[in-house]
Amino acid sequence: MVLFAGQGDARRALELLWRTPVTREKRPGPKPALTIDEIVDAAVAIADEEGMPALSMRAVGQRLGRSGMSLYTYVPNKSELVDLMYDHVHGELNGDYGLDQGWRPAVRAWAGDLWSFYQRHPWLLQVSQVRPVLGPNEYAVVETVARILTETSLPARTLLRVVGTLFHFVRGAAQTVAESRQAAAATGLSNEDWWAVRSAVVPEVVPDFARRYPTIVALGQADTFRPEEGVPYLESQAAETFRVGLATILDGVEAAMARGPGEP
Amino acid sequence: MVLFAGQGDARRALELLWRTPVTREKRPGPKPALTIDEIVDAAVAIADEEGMPALSMRAVGQRLGRSGMSLYTYVPNKSELVDLMYDHVHGELNGDYGLDQGWRPAVRAWAGDLWSFYQRHPWLLQVSQVRPVLGPNEYAVVETVARILTETSLPARTLLRVVGTLFHFVRGAAQTVAESRQAAAATGLSNEDWWAVRSAVVPEVVPDFARRYPTIVALGQADTFRPEEGVPYLESQAAETFRVGLATILDGVEAAMARGPGEP
DNA sequence: GACAATACTTTACGGCGTAAGGAGATGTCG
DNA sequence: CGACATCTCCTTACGCCGTAAAGTATTGTC
Protein backbone atom coordinates (compact mmCIF):
# COMPACT_ATOMS: atom_id res chain seq x y z
CA MET A 1 0.00 0.00 0.00
CA VAL A 2 1.58 3.20 -1.12
CA LEU A 3 1.08 6.32 0.91
CA PHE A 4 0.15 9.50 -0.84
CA ALA A 5 1.39 12.91 0.11
CA GLY A 6 -0.63 15.99 0.64
CA GLN A 7 -4.23 14.97 0.98
CA GLY A 8 -5.28 17.69 3.34
CA ASP A 9 -5.44 21.41 3.34
CA ALA A 10 -2.60 22.72 1.21
CA ARG A 11 -1.73 25.81 3.22
CA ARG A 12 -1.74 24.12 6.58
CA ALA A 13 0.38 21.29 5.19
CA LEU A 14 2.96 23.59 3.64
CA GLU A 15 3.17 25.77 6.72
CA LEU A 16 3.88 22.68 8.76
CA LEU A 17 6.58 21.58 6.33
CA TRP A 18 8.30 24.92 6.15
CA ARG A 19 7.78 25.49 9.87
CA THR A 20 6.18 28.86 9.33
CA PRO A 21 6.10 30.26 12.88
CA VAL A 22 2.64 29.89 14.35
CA THR A 23 1.70 32.93 16.42
CA ARG A 24 0.17 31.31 19.42
CA GLU A 25 0.22 34.14 21.91
CA LYS A 26 -2.10 34.49 24.83
CA ARG A 27 -4.61 31.77 24.17
CA PRO A 28 -6.44 29.87 26.89
CA GLY A 29 -5.96 26.19 27.43
CA PRO A 30 -3.02 24.07 28.51
CA LYS A 31 0.35 24.48 26.81
CA PRO A 32 1.25 21.83 24.27
CA ALA A 33 3.62 19.40 25.92
CA LEU A 34 5.09 18.17 22.64
CA THR A 35 6.56 19.77 19.57
CA ILE A 36 6.15 18.72 15.97
CA ASP A 37 9.82 17.87 15.83
CA GLU A 38 9.56 15.50 18.78
CA ILE A 39 6.67 13.72 17.11
CA VAL A 40 8.47 13.51 13.77
CA ASP A 41 11.63 12.23 15.44
CA ALA A 42 9.71 9.54 17.30
CA ALA A 43 7.92 8.49 14.14
CA VAL A 44 11.16 8.33 12.16
CA ALA A 45 12.74 6.25 14.89
CA ILE A 46 9.92 3.73 14.74
CA ALA A 47 10.00 3.55 10.95
CA ASP A 48 13.78 3.16 10.91
CA GLU A 49 13.84 0.49 13.58
CA GLU A 50 10.71 -1.51 12.91
CA GLY A 51 9.67 -0.56 9.41
CA MET A 52 6.68 1.16 7.94
CA PRO A 53 4.10 -1.46 8.98
CA ALA A 54 4.98 -0.78 12.63
CA LEU A 55 4.35 2.93 12.23
CA SER A 56 0.95 3.56 13.76
CA MET A 57 -0.42 6.59 15.50
CA ARG A 58 -0.77 4.55 18.65
CA ALA A 59 2.86 3.45 18.47
CA VAL A 60 4.13 7.00 18.03
CA GLY A 61 1.97 8.18 20.90
CA GLN A 62 3.19 5.39 23.13
CA ARG A 63 6.82 6.25 22.44
CA LEU A 64 6.07 9.75 23.66
CA GLY A 65 4.04 8.64 26.66
CA ARG A 66 0.78 9.80 25.10
CA SER A 67 -2.26 8.27 23.55
CA GLY A 68 -2.38 7.89 19.81
CA MET A 69 -5.23 10.35 19.52
CA SER A 70 -3.28 13.13 21.21
CA LEU A 71 -1.13 13.48 18.09
CA TYR A 72 -4.11 14.78 16.17
CA THR A 73 -3.76 18.13 17.88
CA TYR A 74 -0.37 18.55 16.19
CA VAL A 75 -0.86 16.85 12.85
CA PRO A 76 -4.06 16.60 10.81
CA ASN A 77 -3.66 12.91 9.97
CA LYS A 78 -1.18 10.13 9.50
CA SER A 79 -0.51 10.88 5.86
CA GLU A 80 0.74 14.36 6.71
CA LEU A 81 2.89 12.99 9.47
CA VAL A 82 4.55 10.81 6.85
CA ASP A 83 5.09 13.88 4.68
CA LEU A 84 6.81 15.61 7.56
CA MET A 85 8.97 12.56 8.22
CA TYR A 86 9.84 12.38 4.55
CA ASP A 87 11.01 15.94 4.26
CA HIS A 88 12.69 15.92 7.65
CA VAL A 89 15.08 13.08 6.91
CA HIS A 90 15.94 14.54 3.52
CA GLY A 91 17.75 17.19 5.51
CA GLU A 92 20.51 14.62 5.98
CA LEU A 93 21.38 14.99 2.30
CA ASN A 94 22.98 18.38 2.49
CA GLY A 95 26.40 17.66 1.02
CA ASP A 96 27.63 19.92 -1.71
CA TYR A 97 29.48 18.11 -4.39
CA GLY A 98 32.45 19.91 -5.92
CA LEU A 99 32.61 20.16 -9.66
CA ASP A 100 36.41 20.51 -9.94
CA GLN A 101 36.60 17.08 -11.56
CA GLY A 102 33.52 17.58 -13.67
CA TRP A 103 29.94 16.45 -13.34
CA ARG A 104 30.50 12.71 -13.49
CA PRO A 105 32.27 12.13 -10.16
CA ALA A 106 29.85 14.58 -8.57
CA VAL A 107 26.82 12.64 -9.81
CA ARG A 108 28.43 9.44 -8.62
CA ALA A 109 28.98 10.89 -5.16
CA TRP A 110 25.44 12.26 -5.03
CA ALA A 111 23.92 8.96 -6.14
CA GLY A 112 26.08 7.06 -3.65
CA ASP A 113 24.88 9.28 -0.82
CA LEU A 114 21.28 8.83 -1.93
CA TRP A 115 21.83 5.08 -2.08
CA SER A 116 23.07 4.83 1.49
CA PHE A 117 20.48 7.36 2.63
CA TYR A 118 17.70 5.09 1.37
CA GLN A 119 19.31 2.22 3.20
CA ARG A 120 19.31 4.20 6.41
CA HIS A 121 15.63 5.00 5.96
CA PRO A 122 14.20 2.20 3.84
CA TRP A 123 10.64 3.22 4.58
CA LEU A 124 11.16 6.20 2.26
CA LEU A 125 10.92 3.78 -0.64
CA GLN A 126 7.32 3.09 0.36
CA VAL A 127 6.28 6.72 0.09
CA SER A 128 4.97 7.62 -3.33
CA GLN A 129 6.90 10.18 -5.36
CA VAL A 130 4.14 11.35 -7.68
CA ARG A 131 2.82 14.10 -5.51
CA PRO A 132 5.98 15.55 -4.08
CA VAL A 133 5.94 16.69 -0.51
CA LEU A 134 7.23 20.13 -1.55
CA GLY A 135 9.21 20.65 1.62
CA PRO A 136 12.48 22.54 1.92
CA ASN A 137 14.72 19.49 2.10
CA GLU A 138 13.14 17.63 -0.77
CA TYR A 139 13.61 20.71 -2.95
CA ALA A 140 17.20 20.97 -1.79
CA VAL A 141 18.00 17.45 -2.98
CA VAL A 142 16.58 18.15 -6.43
CA GLU A 143 18.38 21.49 -6.53
CA THR A 144 21.67 19.74 -5.79
CA VAL A 145 21.51 17.11 -8.51
CA ALA A 146 20.12 19.61 -11.00
CA ARG A 147 23.01 21.99 -10.33
CA ILE A 148 25.51 19.22 -10.92
CA LEU A 149 23.88 18.16 -14.16
CA THR A 150 23.75 21.73 -15.45
CA GLU A 151 27.46 21.16 -16.03
CA THR A 152 26.59 18.72 -18.84
CA SER A 153 25.03 21.56 -20.87
CA LEU A 154 22.18 19.25 -21.80
CA PRO A 155 18.96 21.09 -22.66
CA ALA A 156 16.71 21.60 -19.65
CA ARG A 157 14.12 19.20 -20.93
CA THR A 158 16.56 16.33 -21.36
CA LEU A 159 18.27 17.16 -18.10
CA LEU A 160 15.02 16.85 -16.21
CA ARG A 161 14.44 13.41 -17.74
CA VAL A 162 17.90 12.34 -16.67
CA VAL A 163 17.11 13.45 -13.13
CA GLY A 164 13.97 11.30 -13.24
CA THR A 165 15.90 8.34 -14.61
CA LEU A 166 18.51 8.62 -11.87
CA PHE A 167 15.87 8.68 -9.16
CA HIS A 168 14.01 5.71 -10.62
CA PHE A 169 17.20 3.72 -10.84
CA VAL A 170 18.60 4.54 -7.42
CA ARG A 171 15.27 3.93 -5.72
CA GLY A 172 14.85 0.62 -7.54
CA ALA A 173 18.32 -0.59 -6.70
CA ALA A 174 18.02 0.55 -3.08
CA GLN A 175 14.69 -1.20 -2.81
CA THR A 176 16.34 -4.52 -3.50
CA VAL A 177 18.58 -4.17 -0.49
CA ALA A 178 15.92 -2.69 1.74
CA GLU A 179 13.38 -5.33 0.91
CA SER A 180 15.87 -8.14 1.23
CA ARG A 181 16.51 -7.06 4.80
CA GLN A 182 12.84 -6.56 5.51
CA ALA A 183 12.01 -9.96 4.09
CA ALA A 184 14.68 -11.63 6.18
CA ALA A 185 13.47 -9.88 9.32
CA ALA A 186 9.79 -10.46 8.63
CA THR A 187 10.08 -14.13 7.82
CA GLY A 188 12.94 -15.07 10.15
CA LEU A 189 14.65 -16.75 7.24
CA SER A 190 17.79 -15.35 5.64
CA ASN A 191 17.70 -14.85 1.90
CA GLU A 192 20.43 -17.44 1.52
CA ASP A 193 18.46 -20.06 3.42
CA TRP A 194 15.30 -19.13 1.59
CA TRP A 195 17.02 -19.53 -1.74
CA ALA A 196 18.65 -22.80 -0.73
CA VAL A 197 15.26 -24.30 0.09
CA ARG A 198 13.53 -23.02 -3.03
CA SER A 199 16.25 -23.83 -5.51
CA ALA A 200 16.38 -27.40 -4.21
CA VAL A 201 12.67 -27.86 -4.80
CA VAL A 202 12.42 -26.24 -8.25
CA PRO A 203 14.13 -29.07 -10.16
CA GLU A 204 11.80 -31.59 -8.52
CA VAL A 205 8.67 -29.67 -9.40
CA VAL A 206 9.96 -28.66 -12.85
CA PRO A 207 12.07 -31.51 -14.24
CA ASP A 208 12.41 -29.92 -17.69
CA PHE A 209 13.65 -26.57 -16.38
CA ALA A 210 16.86 -26.51 -18.40
CA ARG A 211 15.00 -27.20 -21.62
CA ARG A 212 12.43 -24.47 -21.00
CA TYR A 213 14.82 -21.77 -19.81
CA PRO A 214 18.15 -22.44 -21.52
CA THR A 215 19.41 -18.85 -21.39
CA ILE A 216 18.81 -18.53 -17.66
CA VAL A 217 20.66 -21.75 -16.98
CA ALA A 218 23.54 -20.82 -19.28
CA LEU A 219 23.89 -17.37 -17.72
CA GLY A 220 23.82 -18.85 -14.24
CA GLN A 221 26.70 -21.12 -15.14
CA ALA A 222 28.72 -18.41 -16.86
CA ASP A 223 28.20 -15.81 -14.11
CA THR A 224 31.45 -15.04 -12.28
CA PHE A 225 29.82 -13.03 -9.52
CA ARG A 226 30.84 -13.96 -5.97
CA PRO A 227 29.66 -11.90 -3.00
CA GLU A 228 32.10 -9.85 -0.97
CA GLU A 229 33.35 -11.30 2.27
CA GLY A 230 30.76 -11.00 5.02
CA VAL A 231 28.13 -9.34 2.86
CA PRO A 232 24.91 -11.24 2.12
CA TYR A 233 24.67 -12.44 -1.47
CA LEU A 234 21.68 -10.35 -2.47
CA GLU A 235 23.07 -7.15 -1.01
CA SER A 236 26.44 -7.62 -2.62
CA GLN A 237 24.75 -8.30 -5.93
CA ALA A 238 22.52 -5.26 -5.55
CA ALA A 239 25.57 -3.10 -4.86
CA GLU A 240 27.16 -4.33 -8.06
CA THR A 241 23.96 -3.61 -9.98
CA PHE A 242 24.04 -0.12 -8.53
CA ARG A 243 27.65 0.43 -9.66
CA VAL A 244 27.24 -1.07 -13.11
CA GLY A 245 23.84 0.47 -13.74
CA LEU A 246 24.92 3.94 -12.68
CA ALA A 247 28.00 3.74 -14.92
CA THR A 248 25.77 2.61 -17.79
CA ILE A 249 23.42 5.55 -17.33
CA LEU A 250 26.28 8.03 -17.10
CA ASP A 251 27.84 6.57 -20.24
CA GLY A 252 24.48 7.16 -21.87
CA VAL A 253 24.48 10.77 -20.69
CA GLU A 254 27.88 11.29 -22.28
CA ALA A 255 26.56 9.84 -25.51
CA ALA A 256 23.65 12.29 -25.40
CA MET A 257 26.08 15.15 -24.80
CA ALA A 258 28.17 14.08 -27.76
CA ARG A 259 25.08 13.98 -29.95
CA GLY A 260 24.24 17.53 -28.98
CA PRO A 261 20.79 19.03 -28.45
CA GLY A 262 17.85 17.66 -30.40
CA GLU A 263 14.49 16.04 -29.97
CA PRO A 264 14.43 14.26 -26.64
CA MET B 1 3.47 -2.00 2.90
CA VAL B 2 5.31 -4.31 0.61
CA LEU B 3 4.16 -7.87 0.27
CA PHE B 4 6.70 -10.65 0.38
CA ALA B 5 6.58 -13.73 -1.73
CA GLY B 6 6.93 -17.25 -0.57
CA GLN B 7 6.51 -17.32 3.15
CA GLY B 8 4.95 -20.72 3.40
CA ASP B 9 5.88 -24.25 2.62
CA ALA B 10 8.14 -24.19 -0.39
CA ARG B 11 6.94 -27.37 -2.07
CA ARG B 12 3.27 -26.63 -1.71
CA ALA B 13 3.82 -23.10 -3.00
CA LEU B 14 5.76 -24.21 -6.04
CA GLU B 15 3.31 -26.97 -6.88
CA LEU B 16 0.54 -24.41 -6.82
CA LEU B 17 2.51 -22.09 -9.09
CA TRP B 18 3.42 -24.74 -11.61
CA ARG B 19 -0.01 -26.34 -11.33
CA THR B 20 1.44 -29.76 -10.61
CA PRO B 21 -1.63 -31.99 -10.95
CA VAL B 22 -3.02 -32.90 -7.55
CA THR B 23 -4.23 -36.49 -7.49
CA ARG B 24 -7.47 -36.16 -5.62
CA GLU B 25 -9.13 -39.45 -6.38
CA LYS B 26 -11.81 -41.08 -4.30
CA ARG B 27 -11.75 -38.97 -1.22
CA PRO B 28 -14.80 -38.32 0.93
CA GLY B 29 -16.24 -34.89 1.37
CA PRO B 30 -17.92 -32.45 -0.99
CA LYS B 31 -16.28 -31.57 -4.29
CA PRO B 32 -14.56 -28.20 -4.39
CA ALA B 33 -16.89 -25.74 -6.07
CA LEU B 34 -14.09 -23.41 -7.11
CA THR B 35 -10.76 -23.76 -8.88
CA ILE B 36 -7.54 -21.99 -8.14
CA ASP B 37 -7.77 -20.23 -11.48
CA GLU B 38 -11.20 -18.83 -10.68
CA ILE B 39 -9.89 -17.47 -7.40
CA VAL B 40 -6.81 -15.98 -9.01
CA ASP B 41 -8.86 -14.40 -11.78
CA ALA B 42 -11.27 -12.84 -9.28
CA ALA B 43 -8.39 -11.51 -7.19
CA VAL B 44 -6.65 -10.05 -10.25
CA ALA B 45 -9.89 -8.39 -11.31
CA ILE B 46 -10.24 -6.71 -7.94
CA ALA B 47 -6.62 -5.57 -7.88
CA ASP B 48 -6.85 -4.24 -11.44
CA GLU B 49 -10.10 -2.40 -10.86
CA GLU B 50 -9.81 -1.15 -7.31
CA GLY B 51 -6.13 -1.43 -6.47
CA MET B 52 -4.15 -3.42 -3.98
CA PRO B 53 -5.69 -1.90 -0.84
CA ALA B 54 -9.09 -3.23 -1.93
CA LEU B 55 -7.76 -6.76 -2.29
CA SER B 56 -8.92 -8.57 0.81
CA MET B 57 -9.78 -12.20 1.31
CA ARG B 58 -13.32 -11.17 2.14
CA ALA B 59 -13.59 -9.17 -1.09
CA VAL B 60 -12.34 -12.05 -3.23
CA GLY B 61 -14.73 -14.41 -1.51
CA GLN B 62 -17.63 -12.06 -2.02
CA ARG B 63 -16.92 -11.76 -5.74
CA LEU B 64 -17.20 -15.54 -5.94
CA GLY B 65 -20.27 -15.75 -3.75
CA ARG B 66 -18.34 -17.28 -0.87
CA SER B 67 -17.07 -16.24 2.50
CA GLY B 68 -13.52 -15.00 2.79
CA MET B 69 -12.51 -17.93 4.92
CA SER B 70 -13.55 -20.47 2.31
CA LEU B 71 -10.56 -19.47 0.20
CA TYR B 72 -8.23 -20.93 2.77
CA THR B 73 -9.06 -24.40 1.53
CA TYR B 74 -7.49 -23.51 -1.80
CA VAL B 75 -4.66 -21.22 -0.85
CA PRO B 76 -2.61 -21.28 2.34
CA ASN B 77 -2.72 -17.53 2.92
CA LYS B 78 -3.08 -14.18 1.26
CA SER B 79 0.60 -13.80 0.49
CA GLU B 80 0.60 -16.96 -1.62
CA LEU B 81 -2.52 -15.80 -3.40
CA VAL B 82 -0.59 -12.69 -4.39
CA ASP B 83 2.24 -14.89 -5.66
CA LEU B 84 -0.20 -16.78 -7.83
CA MET B 85 -1.69 -13.54 -9.14
CA TYR B 86 1.78 -12.23 -9.86
CA ASP B 87 2.90 -15.19 -11.89
CA HIS B 88 -0.46 -15.62 -13.59
CA VAL B 89 -0.56 -12.16 -15.16
CA HIS B 90 3.05 -12.44 -16.28
CA GLY B 91 1.71 -14.97 -18.74
CA GLU B 92 0.50 -11.98 -20.77
CA LEU B 93 4.11 -11.18 -21.60
CA ASN B 94 4.72 -13.98 -24.02
CA GLY B 95 5.81 -12.08 -27.11
CA ASP B 96 8.97 -13.19 -28.80
CA TYR B 97 11.05 -10.35 -30.08
CA GLY B 98 12.82 -10.90 -33.36
CA LEU B 99 16.51 -10.13 -33.50
CA ASP B 100 16.70 -9.44 -37.25
CA GLN B 101 17.38 -5.76 -36.54
CA GLY B 102 19.68 -6.46 -33.63
CA TRP B 103 19.23 -6.41 -29.89
CA ARG B 104 18.41 -2.74 -29.49
CA PRO B 105 14.97 -2.60 -31.10
CA ALA B 106 14.15 -5.90 -29.43
CA VAL B 107 14.99 -4.54 -25.98
CA ARG B 108 12.97 -1.43 -26.75
CA ALA B 109 9.96 -3.53 -27.73
CA TRP B 110 10.34 -5.74 -24.66
CA ALA B 111 10.64 -2.75 -22.33
CA GLY B 112 7.68 -1.07 -23.98
CA ASP B 113 5.55 -4.16 -23.46
CA LEU B 114 6.66 -4.38 -19.84
CA TRP B 115 5.83 -0.70 -19.41
CA SER B 116 2.27 -1.07 -20.63
CA PHE B 117 1.92 -4.37 -18.80
CA TYR B 118 2.68 -2.63 -15.50
CA GLN B 119 0.12 0.00 -16.37
CA ARG B 120 -2.49 -2.68 -16.96
CA HIS B 121 -1.67 -4.24 -13.58
CA PRO B 122 -0.28 -1.45 -11.44
CA TRP B 123 -0.57 -3.50 -8.26
CA LEU B 124 2.41 -5.55 -9.49
CA LEU B 125 4.60 -2.62 -8.57
CA GLN B 126 3.63 -3.14 -4.96
CA VAL B 127 4.83 -6.72 -4.87
CA SER B 128 8.42 -7.02 -3.75
CA GLN B 129 10.94 -8.40 -6.22
CA VAL B 130 13.59 -9.61 -3.80
CA ARG B 131 12.23 -13.06 -3.28
CA PRO B 132 11.09 -13.99 -6.73
CA VAL B 133 7.93 -15.98 -7.06
CA LEU B 134 9.73 -18.60 -9.17
CA GLY B 135 6.71 -19.38 -11.29
CA PRO B 136 6.74 -20.40 -14.95
CA ASN B 137 5.72 -17.03 -16.34
CA GLU B 138 8.09 -14.95 -14.26
CA TYR B 139 10.94 -17.16 -15.44
CA ALA B 140 9.76 -16.79 -19.02
CA VAL B 141 9.99 -12.99 -18.86
CA VAL B 142 13.55 -13.14 -17.57
CA GLU B 143 14.42 -15.76 -20.17
CA THR B 144 13.12 -13.49 -22.92
CA VAL B 145 15.10 -10.39 -22.02
CA ALA B 146 18.19 -12.44 -21.27
CA ARG B 147 18.01 -14.10 -24.67
CA ILE B 148 17.79 -10.72 -26.38
CA LEU B 149 20.72 -9.33 -24.44
CA THR B 150 22.86 -12.36 -25.20
CA GLU B 151 23.14 -10.73 -28.63
CA THR B 152 25.27 -7.97 -27.09
CA SER B 153 28.01 -10.49 -26.26
CA LEU B 154 28.45 -8.83 -22.91
CA PRO B 155 29.89 -11.14 -20.23
CA ALA B 156 27.20 -12.96 -18.27
CA ARG B 157 27.95 -11.02 -15.12
CA THR B 158 27.53 -7.62 -16.75
CA LEU B 159 24.52 -8.81 -18.70
CA LEU B 160 22.75 -9.81 -15.51
CA ARG B 161 23.40 -6.36 -14.03
CA VAL B 162 21.93 -4.76 -17.12
CA VAL B 163 18.83 -6.89 -16.72
CA GLY B 164 18.53 -5.65 -13.15
CA THR B 165 19.03 -2.05 -14.22
CA LEU B 166 16.33 -2.35 -16.88
CA PHE B 167 13.85 -3.77 -14.41
CA HIS B 168 14.60 -1.08 -11.83
CA PHE B 169 14.18 1.63 -14.40
CA VAL B 170 11.00 0.35 -16.04
CA ARG B 171 9.37 -0.36 -12.70
CA GLY B 172 10.30 3.07 -11.39
CA ALA B 173 9.03 4.88 -14.47
CA ALA B 174 5.84 2.82 -14.57
CA GLN B 175 5.28 3.54 -10.90
CA THR B 176 5.03 7.23 -11.64
CA VAL B 177 2.11 6.70 -13.97
CA ALA B 178 0.44 4.07 -11.83
CA GLU B 179 0.69 6.11 -8.67
CA SER B 180 -0.43 9.29 -10.36
CA ARG B 181 -3.63 7.52 -11.36
CA GLN B 182 -4.04 5.95 -7.94
CA ALA B 183 -3.49 9.28 -6.24
CA ALA B 184 -6.05 10.98 -8.44
CA ALA B 185 -8.57 8.24 -7.79
CA ALA B 186 -7.89 8.02 -4.06
CA THR B 187 -8.06 11.75 -3.40
CA GLY B 188 -10.68 12.71 -5.96
CA LEU B 189 -8.36 15.46 -7.13
CA SER B 190 -6.60 15.36 -10.49
CA ASN B 191 -2.86 15.84 -10.46
CA GLU B 192 -3.27 19.03 -12.44
CA ASP B 193 -5.68 20.48 -9.90
CA TRP B 194 -3.54 19.29 -7.04
CA TRP B 195 -0.51 20.95 -8.53
CA ALA B 196 -2.39 24.15 -9.29
CA VAL B 197 -3.40 24.49 -5.65
CA ARG B 198 0.02 23.68 -4.22
CA SER B 199 2.08 25.74 -6.60
CA ALA B 200 -0.08 28.75 -5.86
CA VAL B 201 0.55 28.41 -2.14
CA VAL B 202 4.30 27.72 -2.22
CA PRO B 203 5.35 31.28 -3.12
CA GLU B 204 3.22 32.64 -0.27
CA VAL B 205 4.70 30.28 2.29
CA VAL B 206 8.23 30.54 0.86
CA PRO B 207 8.77 34.08 -0.41
CA ASP B 208 12.49 33.56 -1.04
CA PHE B 209 12.02 30.42 -3.13
CA ALA B 210 13.87 31.68 -6.21
CA ARG B 211 16.89 32.67 -4.14
CA ARG B 212 17.08 29.32 -2.37
CA TYR B 213 16.50 27.10 -5.40
CA PRO B 214 17.85 29.00 -8.40
CA THR B 215 18.58 25.95 -10.54
CA ILE B 216 15.09 24.54 -10.14
CA VAL B 217 13.55 27.85 -11.12
CA ALA B 218 15.88 28.28 -14.08
CA LEU B 219 15.22 24.76 -15.34
CA GLY B 220 11.48 25.23 -14.96
CA GLN B 221 11.66 28.31 -17.17
CA ALA B 222 13.92 26.70 -19.77
CA ASP B 223 11.93 23.46 -19.98
CA THR B 224 10.22 23.11 -23.36
CA PHE B 225 8.11 20.12 -22.35
CA ARG B 226 4.41 20.33 -23.16
CA PRO B 227 2.11 17.36 -22.62
CA GLU B 228 0.57 15.53 -25.55
CA GLU B 229 -2.97 16.40 -26.46
CA GLY B 230 -5.45 14.77 -24.10
CA VAL B 231 -2.84 13.07 -21.93
CA PRO B 232 -2.47 14.23 -18.34
CA TYR B 233 0.70 16.20 -17.71
CA LEU B 234 2.32 13.76 -15.33
CA GLU B 235 1.66 10.76 -17.52
CA SER B 236 2.95 12.45 -20.62
CA GLN B 237 6.06 13.51 -18.73
CA ALA B 238 6.54 10.00 -17.36
CA ALA B 239 6.29 8.57 -20.88
CA GLU B 240 9.02 10.95 -22.02
CA THR B 241 11.19 9.97 -19.07
CA PHE B 242 10.66 6.36 -20.09
CA ARG B 243 11.73 7.04 -23.68
CA VAL B 244 14.71 9.20 -22.82
CA GLY B 245 15.86 7.08 -19.89
CA LEU B 246 15.66 3.85 -21.87
CA ALA B 247 17.63 5.39 -24.73
CA THR B 248 20.22 6.59 -22.24
CA ILE B 249 20.61 3.15 -20.71
CA LEU B 250 20.89 1.48 -24.13
CA ASP B 251 23.50 4.04 -25.19
CA GLY B 252 25.37 3.06 -22.05
CA VAL B 253 25.14 -0.61 -22.99
CA GLU B 254 26.65 0.17 -26.37
CA ALA B 255 29.47 2.01 -24.65
CA ALA B 256 30.11 -1.04 -22.46
CA MET B 257 30.14 -3.25 -25.55
CA ALA B 258 32.65 -0.97 -27.24
CA ARG B 259 34.88 -1.09 -24.17
CA GLY B 260 34.88 -4.88 -24.28
CA PRO B 261 34.87 -7.28 -21.35
CA GLY B 262 36.54 -6.22 -18.12
CA GLU B 263 35.86 -5.70 -14.45
CA PRO B 264 32.18 -4.88 -14.06
C1' DG C 1 -15.97 33.31 39.44
C1' DA C 2 -17.77 32.48 34.76
C1' DC C 3 -16.56 31.15 30.45
C1' DA C 4 -14.03 29.73 26.35
C1' DA C 5 -10.32 27.54 24.28
C1' DT C 6 -7.06 23.98 24.26
C1' DA C 7 -4.55 19.32 25.27
C1' DC C 8 -5.34 15.01 26.01
C1' DT C 9 -8.11 10.77 27.17
C1' DT C 10 -11.39 6.98 26.57
C1' DT C 11 -14.60 4.72 23.86
C1' DA C 12 -16.37 3.13 19.59
C1' DC C 13 -16.78 1.86 14.50
C1' DG C 14 -15.80 -0.66 10.56
C1' DG C 15 -12.03 -2.51 8.23
C1' DC C 16 -8.06 -6.23 8.00
C1' DG C 17 -5.76 -11.49 8.19
C1' DT C 18 -6.67 -15.60 10.06
C1' DA C 19 -7.28 -19.09 14.21
C1' DA C 20 -10.91 -22.05 16.06
C1' DG C 21 -14.72 -24.66 15.89
C1' DG C 22 -19.01 -26.26 13.90
C1' DA C 23 -22.43 -27.64 10.07
C1' DG C 24 -23.42 -30.17 6.19
C1' DA C 25 -21.93 -32.96 2.16
C1' DT C 26 -19.79 -37.00 0.40
C1' DG C 27 -17.02 -40.93 0.22
C1' DT C 28 -15.50 -45.85 2.23
C1' DC C 29 -16.27 -49.35 5.29
C1' DG C 30 -18.80 -52.81 8.21
C1' DC D 1 -28.23 -49.26 5.84
C1' DG D 2 -25.44 -46.96 9.55
C1' DA D 3 -20.95 -45.42 11.31
C1' DC D 4 -17.29 -42.83 10.48
C1' DA D 5 -13.67 -40.10 8.24
C1' DT D 6 -12.79 -36.42 5.41
C1' DC D 7 -13.74 -32.61 2.99
C1' DT D 8 -15.88 -27.66 1.89
C1' DC D 9 -17.66 -23.83 3.71
C1' DC D 10 -19.63 -21.04 7.44
C1' DT D 11 -19.80 -18.15 11.67
C1' DT D 12 -17.50 -16.27 15.41
C1' DA D 13 -13.71 -14.13 17.61
C1' DC D 14 -9.10 -11.79 18.40
C1' DG D 15 -6.01 -8.13 18.11
C1' DC D 16 -4.51 -4.86 14.99
C1' DC D 17 -5.40 -0.28 12.20
C1' DG D 18 -7.03 5.13 11.33
C1' DT D 19 -9.86 8.25 13.24
C1' DA D 20 -14.72 10.24 14.70
C1' DA D 21 -17.07 11.61 18.88
C1' DA D 22 -17.46 12.90 23.30
C1' DG D 23 -15.70 13.69 27.86
C1' DT D 24 -12.16 15.67 31.33
C1' DA D 25 -8.64 18.61 32.95
C1' DT D 26 -5.94 22.72 32.38
C1' DT D 27 -5.21 27.44 31.39
C1' DG D 28 -6.12 31.88 29.84
C1' DT D 29 -9.40 36.41 29.48
C1' DC D 30 -13.14 39.01 31.17
Summarize the SSE layout with pairings.
2 copies of one chain form a homodimer.
Chain A lengths: L9 H8 L18 H15 L6 H7 L14 H13 L12 H18 L15 H15 L5 H32 L3 H15 L3 H4 L1 H9 L10 H27 L5
The first copy, chain A, binds a DNA duplex (30 and 30 nucleotides) through loops.
Structure in words:
Two copies of one chain form a homodimer. By secondary structure, chain A is an all-alpha fold. The first copy, chain A, has two domains: 81 residues, Arc Repressor Mutant, subunit A, CATH 1.10.10.60; 166 residues, Tetracycline Repressor, domain 2, CATH 1.10.357.10. Chain A has eleven helices and no strands. In chain A, helix 5 packs antiparallel against helix 6. At the A-B interface, helix 1, helix 6, helix 7, helix 8 and helix 10 of A face helix 1, helix 6, helix 7, helix 8 and helix 10 of B. Chain A binds a DNA duplex (30 and 30 nucleotides) through loops.
Shape of chain A: flat
Structure classification of chain A: mainly alpha
| The level-1 CATH class of the largest domain in chain A | Mainly Alpha
Strand content of chain A: under 5%
Helical element count of chain A?
11
Going by CATH, what is the homologous superfamily of the largest domain in chain A? Answer: Tetracycline Repressor, domain 2
Number of DSSP-assigned strands of chain A: 0
Give the helix level of chain A as a range of percent.
55-70%
Radius of gyration of chain A: 23 Å
Whole-number mean pLDDT of chain A: 90
Report on the biggest sheet of chain A.
none
Features:
mainly alpha, 2 domains, transcription regulation (chains A, B), Tetracycline Repressor, domain 2, 264 residues, homodimer, DNA-binding, Arc Repressor Mutant, subunit A, 62% helix
